Amino acid sequence: MAVAEQQPLATPPKAAEARVPTVIVDDVHIVYKVYGAGTGKGSATAALSRLLLRRGSPNVRRVHAVRGVSFTAYRGEAIGIIGSNGSGKSTILRAIAGLLPPESGKIYTDGQPSLLGVNAALMNDLTGATNVMLGGLAMGMTQEEVRERYQGIVDFSGINEKGDFISLPMRTYSSGMAARLRFSIAAAKNHDVLMIDEALATGDRAFQRRSEARIRELRKEAGTVFLVSHNNTSIRDTCDRVVWLEKGELLMDGPTDEVIKAYEKHTK
Amino acid sequence: MSTVSETTHNGAVAVGAPPAPTADDGLSPSQLAAKYGLSVSGARPGLAEYTRQLWGRRHFINEFAKARTAAQYTQARLGQLWQVMTPLLNAAVYYLIFGVLIGTRKGVDNFIAFLVTGIFIFTFTQTSVLSGVRAVAGNLGLIRALHFPRASMPIAFTLMQLQQLMMSMFVLVAIVLMTGEVPDASWLLIIPALITQWIFNTGLAMIVARLGSKMTDLAQLMPFILRTWMYTSGVMYSIENLTAHAPHYVRILLDINPAAVYIDLARFALIDSVTSSQLPPHVWISAVAWAVLVGVGGYIYFWKAEEQYGRG
């Protein structure tokens, strides 16, 4: 297991500057409780006997998604996070964003990290336009800011390219359209620590180009950028350091080329 | 390892690799965090800071409530008409059962106004609690996606109920007028009565929102608790008449019940035949006390678990 110590080529992004940590992840464990996931039939008598015998419900499953991960991210870094599906990548990002409390361990951050995810569920029974407004307000924009940026967000998402879809409820959107709108809302704000969870993969080619350009812009403003992707090319293009997670454990942490090479060998 | 000798990698290489030995080596993560002023991610802010953040999201809360209210009946063909139809139908059903069939109207002047006021006021608390239970548990997607003070959710949902109540109030006033009540200055008392009740409801919604986020069974249980509460709150009968021969403490217990307090106040405001002599003693004080106690207590109780609401 090649961990970071073997890196002789290490260089701070700007040699003159001291390395300033922006995100410190210290031995973090994250456990999900999932209800209704059991294989039992969940009959009433079974539930009653569970209560009487004081046994835990088999319908509650504890999913240990992240197991003891530690790393420190510094200002100016762009860190890719790779690993197979279900390896805990999105989970650790959500924890860094403070959206998912760790079971044990601590995460320290500089300011409020922002997570741009494709899974950011908005309100499906409300129109796209309402979602843009509510999303902006929830992120802490003022009403004026939201009004100013509204058109930009809608144009960026490209939702209205094929007609007036923005005034329809989000439940009528295709998954690609919904993902595009979510990303556009989240990307409308400037961020300190920025985490992008597979947001590059959504949408068509034109939208991908637009979002890549926007991410480069955001990177310039952000202290640290995290990028989750299954696309090794986009990781190579954007990241200088890669963290490899597998089954919730940190398998490798080092320069992009080295880690991706090991990862590709592993997945072949 | 000197950093100067390694700047030849055209700036694109291996930033994340291990550091040159610096003064930071040997610091524990928490010491390092303290040195650079990093804060624990997702930590609960202090109560004052939390309140300030919440105030910053007041437009979000307001718009969320408005949008949800507007979207509420979009799947029904009659649409927003249900905002008025629902309370009307409720009143009709209760009148049929309690006014006509069971006959609790005996001894109550203007029973229709008495009953409808009771139902609408209790429904305000009831729906606030019911939506409060699901306020966190039912919006995990939004809570996990965006960062905002979680108290926004139960507050927005009780605000929705307040907007719904405004609709009901038009119906209520229409019914009360039809039963022969004459508007006078005392009708204005409905405003402080509803404000205190709304604060009480919000506090209660925050309490059940926290409980409901942990105990998912509570959403199933809540309708039964609320129905029991309704039947003991003098919605469809007069507590005064019922307890005429009961021990004094029963009367006091029934009268101190917050739902009964707010119902009494609304009836006192709107119905002429309900006079101040029929009100329990210190009823305004109880109304304000319940609002402050549950409002502030519920807020603090909710804030205490702020960092845990993302966990499903």
Automatic annotation (TrEMBL), chain A:
Upper taxonomic lineage: Bacteria, Bacillati, Actinomycetota, Actinomycetes, Kitasatosporales
GO cellular component: membrane
This protein's UniProt keywords: ATP-binding, Nucleotide-binding, Transport
Top-level taxon in the UniProt lineage: Bacteria
Regions that span the bilayer: none
Ranges where the ABC transporter domain occurs: 48-268
A GO term for molecular function: ABC-type transporter activity
Family assignment from sequence similarity: Belongs to the ABC transporter superfamily.
One Pfam family cited in the UniProt record for this chain: ABC_tran
Protein name: Teichoic acid transport system ATP-binding protein
From TrEMBL, chain B:
All residue ranges annotated as the ABC transmembrane type-2 domain in the record: 78-304
Statement: the UniProt record of this protein carries the keyword Acyltransferase: no
Topology of this chain in the membrane: Multi-pass membrane protein
GO biological processes: lipopolysaccharide transport; response to antibiotic
Biased composition (Polar residues): 1-10
InterPro entries the UniProt entry points to: ABC2_TM, ABC2_TM_bact-type, ABC_2_transport
Transmembrane domains' residue ranges: 87-105, 111-133, 154-179, 185-209, 283-302
One GO MF term attached to the UniProt entry: ABC-type transporter activity
Biased composition, class Low complexity, residue ranges: 11-26
Stretch list, region Disordered: 1-26
Keywords from the UniProt entry: Antibiotic resistance, Cell inner membrane, Cell membrane, Membrane, Transmembrane, Transmembrane helix, Transport
Main subcellular localisation: membrane
GO cellular component: ATP-binding cassette (ABC) transporter complex
Compartments reported by the entry: Cell inner membrane; Cell membrane
Domain of life: Bacteria
Keyword Membrane recorded: yes
Family: Belongs to the ABC-2 integral membrane protein family.
Protein name: Transport permease protein
The organism of origin for this protein: Actinacidiphila bryophytorum
Organism classification: Bacteria, Bacillati, Actinomycetota, Actinomycetes, Kitasatosporales
